[in-house]
Amino acid sequence: MQPILEVQQLKKYFSTQKAVDDVSFRIEKGAIFGMLGPNGAGKTTLIRMITGIFFPDSGSIIFDGKSFDPSTDIAKIGYMPEERGLYKKMKIGEQALYLARLKGLSKAEATEKIRYWFQRLEMDTWWNKKVEDLSKGMSQKFQFVTTILHEPSLIILDEPFSGLDPVNANLIKDEIFRLAKNGSTIIFSTHRMEQVEEICDHIVLINKGKKILDGTVKNVKQEFKENLFEVGFEHKAGETSANSIFEVTEQKDQSLILKIHEGFKPHDVLQYFLSLGQEITSFRELLPTLNDIFIKLVEGTPLAREFQPLSSSS
Fold it and tell me: How far is CA 310 from CA 16, 21, 54, 60, 124, in A?
C-alpha cells in the first residue's frame, strides 16, 4: 500500500543545534501512528515541517505519493498543536465557523458539520461561549473539533489528552479510533508512552533529534522481550530449587516472575512445576512497556547524548 506520508532524511538546524537530524519514516494510510519522545526531542519541529510551517534544511517529504506541496496539501491536513491557537474573545460557534471557512467549507456545510460535532462531543450549549470562559479540557475538546471539521486525510494531534478528565479523554480516544476506521490517518505526538501503547499500531521513537527506532508496537515489544514470564499457582508459591531452566526474579504470594534461560521453552517451565505437583492457574509472558524500551535505548546507546554543535563545514 502506498503510504500517506514518507519523510526521507529530514534535517532541521537552529543556530548551532540539530533539532532534527537525519530522520526517516513512513506512515501507511489509515494508521494511528505514534510519534514518541521526551520534551525537546524534536517532535514538534518534525510536525512543523510536515505541515509546511518550517522548511527542512535537507531531506524530502512525500505526501500521498507526491512531493509535498504546501499550496495544495495543507488543506488535506488537520493539525491540533499542543499550544492552543484559539481567539480568546470570539464566541465558540463563530470561531469554529471561521476556521472551517478557512479550510474551504461553505457556510452551510461548515454550520452543519459544527452542529454535528458539537452534539457528538456533548458541546451543544457552547455555541455562544467565549474561549476565555472554557476550562483547559473544554478548550481541548473544541480544538479537536476544529482540527477534524474539514475531514482531513491526515490528522496530527500533539498531546491531545492534555487537560482532559478521564471521561472526556475516553470520548476523544473513541473518536480517534472511529476516524482511523473510516480511513483517516492519524499522527499522535506525545511523551506519554502509555497512551501510545494503548492507541497506536505503529510508532517512531525520537530522542535528541535522532530516530531511535520505528515499527509496529507489537513487533517492537517482541524485539525487546527478555524471556520473562509470570506463573500463577492455586496455592502459595513454594520455594524453587536452583535449576538450569529458569531463575526467579520476583516471588509473590501466589505467583512467580521468572526468566527462562537460553535454550529452554515455556513448556519446559510448565513441565517442571507439574512434575512437582504444583497446580498452575495462569502462565503468561511479560512484554516490556514502550516506556521500558525507550529508557533502555536512551540509557544504553550512543544516541543518548546532548545535542552536538554543527561543524563549521555543515
Answer: 5, 11, 19, 21, 52
Type of residue numbered 98: Y
Fold of domain 226-285? Alpha-Beta Plaits (3.30.70)
Specify the residue for cell string 526468566: 259
pLDDT digits (tens, 9 = 90+) for 124-141: 888 999 988 988 888 899
Per-residue confidence (pLDDT) for residue 314, from 0 to 100: 35
CA neighbor of 2 nearest in space, from 23, 24, 29: 29
Which segments of the chain belong to CATH 3.40.50.300? 3-222
Read off the pTM: 0.84
Digit-coded pLDDT (tens) for 136-175: 888 899 999 999 999 999 999 998 888 888 999 999 999 9
> Exposed/middle/buried for 78, CB within 10 Å: 0-12, 13-18, 19+?
buried
E strands, the chain, in order: 3-14, 17-28, 32-36, 58-63, 66-67, 77-80, 154-158, 185-190, 202-207, 210-216, 228-233, 246-251, 255-260, 280-285
8 A C-beta contact, residue 100 and residue 152: no
Sheet holding 3-14, edge to edge: 17-28, 3-14, 58-63, 66-67
List the grid coordinates of 180. 482511523
Strands 3-14 and 58-63: antiparallel
Quick check: 211 and 59 in contact, CB under 8 A?
no
Looking at the chain, which residues constitute the CATH 3.30.70 domain(s)?
A: 226-285
pLDDT, one tens digit per residue, over 4-34 is: 999 999 999 988 788 999 999 999 999 999 9
Unique residue bearing C-alpha cell 563545514 = 313
First-to-last alpha carbon distance for the chain, in angstroms, is 36
Q: Which CATH architecture has domain 3-222?
A: 3-Layer(aba) Sandwich (3.40)
Grouping H, G, I as helix, E, B as strand and the rest as coil, residue 95 is helix
